Every structure is written in structure tokens, then in C-alpha cells.
Design the sequence.
């Protein structure tokens, strides 16, 4: 049987609703649940925890402006997943790649943790790109 015949089945399985705990899947929901405490509800670096940190929390709506008008997609992904290890609290920001991979969600019989984490990181990154100030 060809791989093309399996594609609709794979898409259906991946689109299935989560079993168990509901997990935010949109970038905006992920940001509100995991990032707004430090970065603020409007992503401008003014969250309630920002005053307690030893490093200034960046305004995430100005990422493109600080990068010559181009959204730094790869750098943002690396910052979120932990590869760039940005400073906060005098040390690294939470490693969201690990956190998102451990959060329960849907299971399709694959190693869903890393795949699910990558999807959440990409959703969050695309949302951040969508809120860039002109």
C-alpha cells in the first residue's frame, strides 16, 4: 500500500482532540499560560514578575524592529526551546522545550512529547511574529 493512502489517516490522527488534560495549542493561549507572568499580557515586558527579575524583560512586540525590520524566527525558536538560553532571574529562562514536551496531550502512538513541544513552540513563535509593532 502506498504512503499516499496513509496520509488521510495520519492527518485524522494528528487532528484528533487531546485525550486527558486540555493543553493550550494556540500561540496566544500558550503565551497567556506560560509567558505573560514575566513578559506581560501584551508581551511588552511588563508582567507582574518582571520587577523581581535581575534582567530586564524584553518587549516581545519589538523583536522585528530590533532586528532591522525582519522577524528573527530561528532566534525566537531557540530562545523558547532553551537552546539560546536567554538570561532571566540571573540565569536561564525556563526551558520551554522540555516543559512543553512533558505536558500531557494527545497520543497517536508516536513519541508525541518532542513533536508536541515543537508544535507548541512554533505556534507561540508564529503568534509572536503576528504581534510585531509596525
Sequence:
Amino acid at each position: 500500500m502506498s504512503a499516499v493512502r496513509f496520509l488521510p489517516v495520519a492527518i485524522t490522527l494528528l487532528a484528533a482532540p487531546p485525550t486527558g488534560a486540555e493543553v493550550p495549542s494556540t500561540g496566544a493561549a500558550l503565551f497567556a499560560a506560560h509567558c505573560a507572568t514575566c513578559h506581560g499580557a501584551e508581551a511588552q515586558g511588563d508582567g507582574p514578575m518582571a520587577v523581581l527579575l535581575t534582567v530586564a524583560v524584553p518587549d516581545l512586540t519589538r523583536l522585528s524592529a530590533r532586528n532591522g525590520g525582519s522577524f528573527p524566527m530561528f532566534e525566537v525558536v531557540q530562545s523558547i526551546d532553551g537552546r539560546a538560553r536567554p538570561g532571566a532571574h540571573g540565569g536561564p529562562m525556563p526551558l520551554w522545550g522540555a516543559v512543553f514536551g512533558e505536558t500531557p496531550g494527545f497520543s497517536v502512538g508516536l513519541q508525541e512529547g518532542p513533536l508536541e513541544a515543537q508544535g507548541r513552540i512554533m505556534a507561540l513563535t508564529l503568534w509572536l511574529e503576528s504581534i510585531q509593532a509596525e
